[in-house]
Every structure is written in C-alpha cells, then in structure tokens.
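thought: fold this chain, then report.
action: predict
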Amino acid sequence: MTLNERLLRLALILSGLLLVVIGLNLALGGIRSMGWHMPVDFMTVTDDLLFRRHDNNVRFFGGVFFALSVLVVLAGLWPRRLRWPVVAFLLAIPAGSVFRILAPGFDVFGDDYLAASILAELILCPLLALWLWRLH
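observation:
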C-alpha cells in the first residue's frame, strides 16, 4: 500500500467520522439538533403538530446523512470497493451547499460558522472525491 493510499484512507476515516457526528446530531435531535454544534434554544414552537412533522423530516434526512457518512468511514477500510457510492455522496454535498447559498434573505458567507462549513462542502468534499476517484 502506497503512502498516498494510506493518507487517503486516513482522510476518509476522519472525514467520515466528522460527517457521522453531523448526521447523528440531526437524526437524534431533529430541528433543534442535539446542540453539538450550536445552541438549541433558538426557537419557540407555536404549532406543535406542524413542528413535529417538520422535525420528523429533519430526523429522517439526518438518519440518511448518518448512514451515508458511515460509508465514508468504511471506504477508509475498503476504498476500491466503496469508491463509487462514496464519490457520489461526496459530490452531492456541494449540491446541498448551493441550496444553502440560494436560501432567500440570509447571507451564509456573512456568518462565520456557516461560511466555514460551506467552504469545506464546496472545496474539501470534491477534493476528497477526486482523490478517491483517482485511486488505482
């Protein structure tokens, strides 16, 4: 195994673990999240049923994100076998960033917390996908 492949495997495992935490934060905590990244006391619910419906959807998508993130960790063990699904997932992340940027009435680049996340999503995820894709 080459040094390049060892570094790629390490990058996949570490990145995947970070993504797993993000997925669990939403899957377990819903809209409010578990508070692992930001405070959770940012809203007041005025319609409990409507909130629970939206919260349930966020938990679902958090669970999907968690499951796909586990694939990134596993790709650190079996990079050739899991190359294509992980490349597809890593390239879907910047697509999600585009929708963040398009959100009306909010300058995501003016928010230091979100700006760092978006730059990672737009730059680091595609670079990691390219690195994995180029693995022989």
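thought: worth noting. The CA atoms of residues 94 and 100 lie 10 Å apart.
final: tokens above.
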